[in-house]
């Protein structure tokens, strides 16, 4: 029996209630704080309070600290035993587990509920994917979001081992011959619901900057190569990118034009011998575009003005390509870049799609990009709902739980409604994607996905505001109880802007609907 297993009565704990001899109880565990008292970040007086010293301080502790504090080695060493005849019943994050908090999980994962979309294979796949992201990705996400470095290569390599990079591209020929998640799903059986699972579990186990940093540029930059590149180009580029050996980003946005794709000013002209493109211009806010000692993009999927209109070209890092980091409101782990092309050259064979046909390449790519953002947005909102339900249960005001206040319950109701509606709309669109070709998706789902993306991110912004109100000052503090609320509130604008601003997408959805209006329809 270790000292931590020593059985101690509550009467014994009560005797140790003064300066120099200070014990407390948290969740049936006994801690000796006698020497720690003066190191306590909140000061010694908090621990010497008569309602804390020698007492059960569980409620007071969880009013100020997250469970993870108890799991840190320096505080685990303070435990000297357990209360006689009692067991600990509280827990924090459990790797791989399904949360029991209402609405913390989508309906299809909630015990007792059913779904027409998810099969038993999806459920088995989800179990392993959650375990993977909780154990491999989550610790790195916390560390890299804080220090701003590129996601660890060890994580990228672990994802390569189960072909996670390939699966994040969705269903397709690129999966052929690959063993997916240790054989859990066959390449020909992998569908958009499998990809949805990956994206949502990634969002659940990540932070916003790290989420883009862990090769978010590949998710949006590689599909044009897969879908519009020549066989020779794909054979040369795709394997190394899917194996995490080389990196790619999508370079569309400029300081002069964002959602207005046709307003881009970066140009590409053919060399005199017609064998190369010569590219000049700048791109801004490009995810994974930087180059430093950690290295990001080796390839850039670039939108350019050409003689025939608008063309997409794969540019390789080399002479004439310069990148520098842009600091934004989320972590530099995302590798957000400003890119300058100064007579950069690319072989004509690097053209994606037809000369002048770039608008179709980009618009069809937007559908998948925006759908991925919808997946992440819906799941992230659910994580905030879980945080708020936990907090309003353990936080006491006027001697009662915070959720005893009607105004708080109203905010919770709105947050839950938004998360549920976004998820169910998402699942419906995902089902349509599973039953349409890539070209059909581009034709029929552009408006639907635009509406959903605009709706999801506007819901996220409302939820972020409500969550800060619920957490109060903790919701604007980057550490402690409200750290995830502060982070979500600070970075939610990325969801609202990347892939198209909300107003632009709403307008796109309406214009798509008007184009489909039957000419014989009358009131």
From TrEMBL:
Taking every annotated instance into account, which residue ranges of this chain make up the domain Cytochrome b5 heme-binding? Answer: 5-84
Q: Which cofactor does it need?
A: FAD
A GO cellular component annotated for this chain's UniProt record is:
cytoplasm
UniProt keywords, alphabetically: FAD, Flavoprotein, Heme, Iron, Metal-binding, Oxidoreductase
Instruction: Tell me which InterPro entries the record gives.
Output: Acyl-CoA_dehydrogenase, Acyl-CoA_DH_CS, Acyl-CoA_Oxase/DH_mid-dom, Acyl-CoA_Oxase/DH_mid-dom_sf, AcylCo_DH-like_C, AcylCo_DH/oxidase_C, AcylCoA_DH/ox_N, AcylCoA_DH/ox_N_sf
Instruction: List where the protein spans the membrane.
Output: none
GO biological process, any: fatty acid beta-oxidation using acyl-CoA dehydrogenase
| SUPFAM superfamilies according to UniProt | Acyl-CoA dehydrogenase C-terminal domain-like, Acyl-CoA dehydrogenase NM domain-like, Cytochrome b5-like heme/steroid binding domain
Which superkingdom is the protein from? Eukaryota
Q: Which GO terms describe its molecular function?
A: acyl-CoA dehydrogenase activity; flavin adenine dinucleotide binding; heme binding; metal ion binding
User: What's the family?
Assistant: Belongs to the acyl-CoA dehydrogenase family.
Q: What is the protein named?
A: Peroxisomal acyl-CoA-dehydrogenase
Tell me what organism the protein belongs to.
Collybia nuda
């Amino acid at each position: 029996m270790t000292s931590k297993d020593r059985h101690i009565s509550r009467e014994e704990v009560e005797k140790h209630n003064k300066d120099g001899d200070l014990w407390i109880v948290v969740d049936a565990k006994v801690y000796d704080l006698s020497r720690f008292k003066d190191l306590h970040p909140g000061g010694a007086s908090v621990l010497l309070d008569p309602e804390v010293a020698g007492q059960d301080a569980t409620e007071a502790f969880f009013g100020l600290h997250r469970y993870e504090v108890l799991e840190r080695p320096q505080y685990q060493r303070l435990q000297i035993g357990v209360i006689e005849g009692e067991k600990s019943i509280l827990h924090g994050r459990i790797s791989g587990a399904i949360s029991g908090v209402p609405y913390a999980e989508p309906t299809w994962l909630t015990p007792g509920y059913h779904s027409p979309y998810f099969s038993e294979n999806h459920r088995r796949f989800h179990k392993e994917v959650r375990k993977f992201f909780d154990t491999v990705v989550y610790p790195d996400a916390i560390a890299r979001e804080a220090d701003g470095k590129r996601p660890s290569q060890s994580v990228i390599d672990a994802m390569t081992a189960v072909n996670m990079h390939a699966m994040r591209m969705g269903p397709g020929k690129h999966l052929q011959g690959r063993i997916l998640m240790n054989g859990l799903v066959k390449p020909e059986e992998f569908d958009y619901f499998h990809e949805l699972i990956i994206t949502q579990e990634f969002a659940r186990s990540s932070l916003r900057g790290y989420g883009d940093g862990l090769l978010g540029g590949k998710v949006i930059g590689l599909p044009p190569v897969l879908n519009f590149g020549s066989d020779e180009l794909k054979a040369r580029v795709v394997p190394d990118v899917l194996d995490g050996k080389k990196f790619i980003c999508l370079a569309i946005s400029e300081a002069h034009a964002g959602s207005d794709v046709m307003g881009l000013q970066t140009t590409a002209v053919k060399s005199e011998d017609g064998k190369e493109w010569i590219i000049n211009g700048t791109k801004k806010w490009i995810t994974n575009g930087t180059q430093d000692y950690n290295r990001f993009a080796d390839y850039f999927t670039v939108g350019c003005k050409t003689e025939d209109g608008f063309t997409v070209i794969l540019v390789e890092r080399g002479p004439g390509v310069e990148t520098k980091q842009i600091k934004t409101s989320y972590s530099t782990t995302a590798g957000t870049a400003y890119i300058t092309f100064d007579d950069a050259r690319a072989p004509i064979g690097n053209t994606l799609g037809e000369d002048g046909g770039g608008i179709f390449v980009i618009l069809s790519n937007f559908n998948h990009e925006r759908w991925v953002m919808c997946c992440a947005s819906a799941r992230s909102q659910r994580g905030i709902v879980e945080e708020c339900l936990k907090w309003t249960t353990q936080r006491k005001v006027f001697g009662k739980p915070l959720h005893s206040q009607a105004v708080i319950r109203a905010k919770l109701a709105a947050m839950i409604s938004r998360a549920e509606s976004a998820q169910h709309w998402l699942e419906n669109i995902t089902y349509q994607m599973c039953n349409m070709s890539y070209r059909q998706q581009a034709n029929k789902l552009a408006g639907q996905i635009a509406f959903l993306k605009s709706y999801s991110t506007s819901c996220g912004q409302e939820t972020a505001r409500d969550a800060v109100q619920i957490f109060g000052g903790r919701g604007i503090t980057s550490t402690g109880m409200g750290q995830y609320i502060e982070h979500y509130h600070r970075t939610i604008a990325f969801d609202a802007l990347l892939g198209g601003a909300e107003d632009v997408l709403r307008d796109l959805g309406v214009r798509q609907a008007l184009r489909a209006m039957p000419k014989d329809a009358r009131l």
